[in-house]
Amino acid sequence: MATEGQAPAVDAHAHVFTRAMPFAADAHSRPDYDYGVDAWLADLDRHGIAHGVIAAASLFNDGNAYTLAALAAHPRRLRGTVIVPPETDVATLRQMADLGVVGVRLTWRRIDELPDLDSDPWRAFLRRIADSGLHVELLSRSASLPHLLPALDKAGVRIVIDHFGVPSRDNAERHVGTDALCRALDTGRVWVKLSAGFRMSFDIAAEVTDRLLAHVGPNRLLWGSDAPFVNHEGSTRFGDTIDLYRRLVPDPAIRAAIDRTALALFFNEESPA
């Protein structure tokens, strides 16, 4: 169980899936269990979390049907992101937005050659994402951020960055990535998730959290559990992720401000007093 303290208002990053869903050919993991939307909602209820945002899982490539069904079943409580090919038209993106989709996830953490965002199809695709009122949800290594973030900003899209910007264990590389995060945050169109901290050392997660809070404060930060902790299921429980968050951000007032950020960004709401 999580320690005492007010629960986060929004879990801004979790994956839902069943064993019936087809894996992508290049899936880096193949979970042999279900973590359906009802299981996630039960975890949210158990820990007093009112809202959630589904992060499209790269394990299933552009298989979005389960996410869209979950959003349709829980329109007040849930939002989500999708993975779609860059040829996706604006009408399709807007239809997804009407169902509760808030962003398009770009999962580039494990690719060696990044796409040229200044050329089509990516240039036109990013414009359509922006025109549809969606953001880009970016999962990429810290070393790539100095290249990717200015290119995405040039395209005029809002950006939500996953997992602290995936900070490198290499000090120099990590600092370069965090510098790029801070420059991007200065644009006012970027947010960073304090999510999946269990996938890195506490010292690295704390270093990046402290740097981001010192640079921009809580108004551009979000928290996410990364449930169901793929590849870490045996060592991480839902309550552990909340405990880690409270260690990284011990001030309840700052966490309340992060709640307000998430509610405004994803649900157009203010947090309760």
Describe the structure.
By secondary structure, this protein is of the alpha/beta class. It has one domain (10-267): Metal-dependent hydrolases (TIM Barrel). It is built from nine helices and eight strands. Strands 1-2-3-4-5-6-7-8 form an eight-stranded parallel sheet, sandwiched between helices. The model has no long low-confidence stretch (mean pLDDT 93).
- The low-confidence parts are none
Q: Shape from CA axes?
A: globular
CATH class: Alpha Beta
Number of domains: 1
For this structure, the CATH topology is: TIM Barrel
Organism: Sphingomonas suaedae
InterPro entries: Amidohydro-rel (IPR006680), Aro_Compnd_Degr_Hydrolases (IPR052358), Metal_Hydrolase (IPR032466)
Domain Amidohydrolase-related: 10-258
GO molecular function: hydrolase activity
List the helices and strands and how they pair.
Layout: E1 10-14, H1 37-46, E2 51-54, H2 65-73, E3 78-82, H3 90-98, E4 101-107, H4 122-131, E5 135-139, H5 145-155, E6 158-161, H6 171-185, E7 190-195, H7 202-216, E8 221-224, H8 238-248, H9 252-267
Parallel strand pairs: 1-2, 2-3, 3-4, 4-5, 5-6, 6-7, 7-8
Helix pairs in contact: 5-6, 6-7
